[in-house]
Request: fold
Amino acid sequence: MHNVFTMILAGGKGERLNPLTEQRAKPAVPFGGKYRIIDFTLSNCLNSGLRRIAVLIQYKSHSLDKHIRSGWNILNSELGEYIASVPPQQRISEEWYKGTADAVYQNLFLLDSEHADYLLILAGDHIYKMNYAEMYHWLIAKNADAVVGALDIPIQDATRFGVISVDEELRIKRFDEKPAAPTPIPGDPTHAFASMGIYLFKTEAIRRYLTADAQEGTAHDFGKNIIPRMIEEGRVYAFKFQDENKKAVKYWRDIGTLDAYWEANMDLIAVDPLFNLYDPNWPIRTYQGQFPPAKFVFAQDFQGGRMGVALDSIICGGCIISGGRVQNSILSPNVRVQDHADVRESIVMENVVIGEQSRIRRAIIDKDVIIPPKTEIGYDREADAQRFKVTESGLVVISKGMKLHASLDSSG
Reply:
């Protein structure tokens, strides 16, 4: 993999995850307690043997850039290895990136300076495990100009994706964006191939297509413009997703909505979660803050007594459950749950304090929020909607650093 240069597209606004993306890019949104969404793509790169990685950032990039510098400065630059965040350089245009293809085109100078024969394009906002080396071997075996990662999904769900039509050799014949009648996989009428937004190119081929596309009035998008043209003129193959998660059902998530984000987090606390964080053969790295161990205090096992407990939950370092109850929830580092507070089915991010006798249910509480004593959230949808964002399913989302006042928010 030493001859593969990697670009991770991490500049999207992630508007459907608002307010979690009010102050950060989508790849920087916390996930699973102590991780950020981009950690999963970066861990895949590291586990696949990739050592030259440029993360192309753009909107609200401070949090993401800080995370990469703090947690991913782990390679030896003297050996030509690095993981670096790269903001828009404006070497070619004074505009910001106009599409996925334009983002790569504006950074072709990186590819030229590295003299790599192959370019791997990844998205920084998906949750999955994949060995990209297998994709590289497939490109070599097929002598392809490009290979597109393909996920086989039920054909009734394929209308929401870019669908890849292939022949028996998995050579791509057509690419359709959200088709009304998806083309099934040969030999399997119940499934279709959806594009994963993962592309591996021969450098000499992709440079030609990016340069030509930049001169035209297109959307400058890989799925809409570059791949369809390469299919017409070159050798483009699908690579069937090989899941390193090693479960009965393949796991790949584009966490595009708040409800999908909550559901993916809640799956992690199951007895046998769909996504395995505990596989020593495929470690997921992140920035590890210097927090003390989690602590649970007060064991007054009598009527009206205080008891600090957490059940079916993920509790990160620095948390103190001080006479409160946490159930079916995920607590990021340095969270405090005070006396007789009750937290259920919720995601609580860093530096949050849950005041005594508060009740929280089906909520996402972003960083640096103090919940006043006796506050109720998730029990009165109408009252919640007056103060917070509430999704269609009734999930309550509290913005980062939001100031709550006991006089307004107390249930009495």
Observations:
- The first strand starts at residue 4 and ends at 9.
- The radius of gyration is 23 Å.
- The CA atoms of residues 241 and 397 lie 33 Å apart.
